[in-house]
Amino acid sequence: xxxxxxxxxxxxxxxxxxxxxxxxxxxxxxxxxxxxxxxxxxxxxxxxxxxxxxxxxxxxxxxxxxxxxxxxxxxxxxxxxxxxxxxxxxxxxxxxxxxxxxxxxxxxxxxxxxxxxxxxxxxxxxxxxxxxxxxxxxxxxxxxxxxxxxxxxxxxxxxxxxxxxxxxxxxxxxxxxxxxxxxxxxxxxxxxxxxxxxxxxxxxxxxxxxxxxxxxxxxxxxxxxxxxxxxxxxxxxxxxxxxxxxxxxxxxxxxxxxxxxxxxxxxxxxxxxxxxxxxxxxxxxxxxxxxxxxxxxxxxxxxxxxxxxxxxxxxxxxxxxxxxxxxxxxxxxxxxxxxxxxxxxxxxxxxxxxxxxxxxxxxxxxxxxxxxxxxxxxxxxxxxxxxxxxxxxxxxxxxxxxxxxxxxxxxxxxxxxxxxxxxxxxxxxxxxxxxxxxxxxxxxxxxxxxxxxxxxxxxxxxxxxxxxxxxxxxxxxxxxxxxxxxxxxxxxxxxxxxxxxxxxxxx
Length: 507
Hints:
The chain is an alpha+beta fold. The protein has 2 domains: 10-102, MutM-like, N-terminal (N-terminal domain of MutM-like DNA repair proteins); 110-377, no CATH class. It is 38% helix and 15% strand. The strands form 7 sheets. The protein has a 4-stranded antiparallel sheet, with no helix packed on it. A hairpin with a 4-residue loop joins strand 2 and strand 3. It is elongated, with a radius of gyration of 34 Å.
């Protein structure tokens, strides 16, 4: 990470490093340390945590990594605080440079510049570079669609772009309210109900059922019925099937559609967009110009006469009485979650045959993939910003609750630290059910970790006793020595007489 032949080595630079500034992107933290700039890209399984200097040195630093349940990828120690990057698998990317301009360029913040990513997407469409699409639910697209089916169609492409911007807006404005209650004493220490609340915030990913607006649930039912009818055919082409409408709800991307420069005319068509009361941009965007230059005229794959009004009111979107529909789970290279089934006897484009097809996951395998199952019935992490191995957690001590930065925290009384560690090895308690015990393998691992923890407490006691003995020695050294007093002549004669006249016992 540091060594480059012919360049200044860290031993020369370290004494001069001082935090002078900080900036961030949605993928990295950038620290101005004076003579060096440090960019930390935390990838997937690394989180940043700020500790007090005393808290760091008395807890994380002295706790065995197998006991505390996470590794320290990098720690920056300042006078009063420690900024640590905690990780499960040491997968993170530190980059050191002498100039900020030499750091890798950060990705554009598309939320601020709105449609700035469209020229890049237009170039991507021309070059047909493969990418993974994760926003198909908001865009009303089936995950089984091919690139050709999506990005050669103006409506589907525009819906994907609008869904992307809507997702950025929702994350920027909504996540803070979910994260703030999980902060306790400066640590991210989410409780189970807070982790479950984030799962509710998601639409479909790792969920069992989706709560949908009524008209969207109707589209799901129509889609499922059409696929069942077509399943009797030996083979059919999706782009030629006009009765299979995309399950799209414009209310879910209302922010993106309300912008002055929006893509509503591409999503619904020029005429219908005006009829629905949509805002028409005065200047065409690059995506519109692209499709116009190619003379592309494609169906929207949207159900006619279904979107009046354009946006539903809040109650029609958030009511607990909304209809629920089962989410289908598939796996290809990665797991996929969809509110519509994947028709196995279909083909996207007539001239291009699908070479692979996802297989459906059902039963216990699917149940064990649900985030609600992971949170409520296992000790594993699920998905989202509250799911990191380096999170702090809460420990009950009598009637009070304290937040500890890691398991095996030596600042806890040993009894509670051991109880906390063993409790981690047990399956989570299920309300109304008898709590399960540990199997032999788990019990051995728990005993091993408790042994590690006990050794840590032994070292702590030895340090404390050593400090106490040292303090006692210092106190003894500080006591004034008694003065030697000279005996008078009479006192010496009396002492000598007592020595001579000492009685002797004869057996």
